[in-house]
Amino acid sequence: EAGVVQSPRYKIIEKKQPVAFWCNPISGHNTLYWYLQNLGQGPELLIRYENEEAVDDSQLPKDRFSAERLKGVDSTLKIQPAELGDSAVYLCASSLGGLEGETQYFGPGTRLLVL
Amino acid sequence: AQSVTQLDSHVSVSEGTPVLLRCNYSSSYSPSLFWYVQHPNKGLQLLLKYTSAATLVKGINGFEAEFKKSETSFHLTKPSAHMSDAAEYFCVVSGSGYSTLTFGKGTMLLVSP
């Protein structure tokens, strides 16, 4: 079974530029998550989707971050404009139905460097 | 609200000696608890999880953890460390009926020959 796929794996941009990350979850997983992992820290949830609906986006900085999950499968996370402090790893995860105790499966992440 | 405290940022052991990574949690509900491992430039991999069944949970690669409600702890152990165990380990809590995970800050496990 294929795991969670993310692209690109690495991205270097200059500040104020836009950037987008793509995630393809495990087939059949209805719930998709985007996490932010700063250096030396654990991941923190940015947004959670149940199918195509964003059910928890309370931690997403909506002035510059946006996300979509069209057709309830693939998802894109965008930053516009990027700031120096956005340098981090962006992780995508998926699970079957978003229930407590469910295993979340993580992709390899996109490592973003903003210069 | 729920939180996780990993008591050590770094743990160093010699190959073949036991491993103990400590984790305390706080939750208003009966939590689900997980340990994930992250190797350099790799995704997070689930080691084991506790979801209110047996309090001693066995995971992959010889790891196990014991849920102790009275101590609000979920420490990760392994009898004998292997060089390939060197990685960062995250203790994670989930609760209140939703799958949202709250991660600890991680413990870096260093294994010397």
Question: What this model shows, in words?
Answer:
The complex is a heterodimer of chains A (115) and B (113). Chain A is 0% helix and 48% strand. By secondary structure, chain A is mainly β. The N and C termini of chain B lie far apart (41 Å). The model of chain B has no long low-confidence stretch (mean pLDDT 92). Chains A and B meet through strand 5, strand 9 and strand 10 of A and strand 5, strand 6 and strand 10 of B.
Number of helices of chain A: 0
Rounded Rg of chain A: 13 Å
Beta strands of chain A, count: 11
SSE topology string of chain B:
EEEEEEEEEEEE
Q: Helix- and strand-based class of chain B?
A: mainly beta
Please state the overall shape of chain A, judged from the principal axes of the Cα atoms: globular
Topology:
The complex is a heterodimer of chains A (115) and B (113).
Chain A: E1 5-7, E2 10-13, E3 19-24, E4 31-37, E5 44-50, E6 53-56, E7 65-68, E8 75-79, E9 88-95, E10 105-106, E11 110-114
Parallel strand pairs in A: 2-11
Antiparallel strand pairs in A: 1-3, 3-8, 4-5, 4-9, 5-6, 7-8, 9-10, 9-11
Chain B: E1 3-6, E2 10-14, E3 19-21, E4 23-26, E5 32-38, E6 44-50, E7 56-58, E8 64-68, E9 73-78, E10 87-94, E11 101-103, E12 107-112
Parallel strand pairs in B: 2-12
Antiparallel strand pairs in B: 1-4, 3-9, 5-6, 5-10, 7-8, 8-9, 10-11, 10-12
